[in-house]
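[scheduler] slot 2 assigned
[scheduler] job type: sequence-to-structure, two independent chains
[scheduler] chain ordering preserved from manifest
[runner] begin chain α
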Amino acid sequence: MIQVYPASSRFEYDKGWLKGGHSFSFAEYYDPENVKFGPMRVCNDDVIAPGKGFGAHPHSDMEIISIILSGRLRHEDSLGNVAVTGFGGVQRMSAGTGVIHTEHNPSEHEDVHILQLWFEPTERGKEPSYTTGEFDTAALDGALVPVASGQGLEGVTDMGQDMTIYLSRLEAGQQLDFKQAVGRRMFLFVIEGELAVSGAGEDVNLGRRDTARITEAPELALTGTSPVFYMLVDLP
């Protein structure tokens, strides 16, 4: 089954210093029918103004992935980690038994645009940890590039859940096929452009900021109906 959530269904917000949208219940937005998808709990599309950010706040028992789409994001936490990451970089925080951190746009002139994703961990109560990783942005063209994974992929930012996050770019008319084990889930998010999705006898079209939650369709055909930049998450 391919269940489409159009961009218009997302909870949009504009706080001046922060704007974007929530794909799942988060902060002031709550919908009991839209709390999570498998272990996926949050998909926030955030744009943070220059010199602004989130003050110190705690997390526990959550795998938090920040993918920087443009600009730079500064992270600092109670474990002593400090990092500044741009496009091609990923920040992963396994909150475990508890960690306090801040996220900040260090630029005086440029917005930072991030996708922040939260996932319930495979194992609760572990020691918290933090790491950064990089991926080859040129390799995104015509391929699904893993940028974070708990499936033991060499050279890919690790995380504490049996899943993989992919990014990809396709030209108009270009197609990729994706296969996963029977019984798993997929989450699609179109960052820019338009994507045609076919699987299990269903065909849907996704536009900018549309998402799809997919079950019982272990084989997908993904085709750019315009130049498209998108994320695919393979979930248990």
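[runner] end chain α
[runner] begin chain β
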Amino acid sequence: MKYIYFLITVFFISFIASIINPKEAFTCFLEIIPAIIGFLILAFTFQKFRFTNFTYTLILVHCIILFIGGHYTYAEVPLFDYIKEVFHQSRNNYDKVGHFAQGLVPAMIIRELFIRKNVISNKSFFNFIIVSICVAISAAYEFIEWFVSLATGDGGDAFLGTQGYVWDTQSDMLFATIGAIVGLIAFSKIQDKQIQKISF
């Protein structure tokens, strides 16, 4: 439990830092609200289903990515402005980090749920189904961004974050897909080791 308390502490420190003098208050709210909702869901379900520490750590990393994007807006994160200048990129690509995590972290969450709840007995399509779900999540988030932008006009432009890139939506979903695949390849064995330590 000590490690869980550590993760919670880091979460709240990051959250508070993100809402102190953000670049755009409305955009900050839109970007960080998924992290807050996620935290509440995990808190309310903790006694019934506790994820491995590894999965919780990945979730925290994703939340921090959201907090940073919320504080600065995804188009104006300073480090990625610097990277943009150094590598002569046409845009600030921090949002691609966010969408990569949007695929990787849900993939590991879904994978742990599937294994521990024995959702899929036939493992032949196990990874395919996980990646497909992550692509669906990414597409649903793009729908939300589109709706918010239409509903709020200029106020939602920073949330949409296309930066004039016509293929932004498609590339966002591609990065989420890559993130899900990378997560399954890179972290499955680590997650399996932690799952084996849990009494089902």
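[runner] end chain β
[qc] chain β: The helical segments are 2-19, 25-45, 53-72, 78-86, 94-116, 126-152, 157-160, 168-196.
[scheduler] slot 2 released
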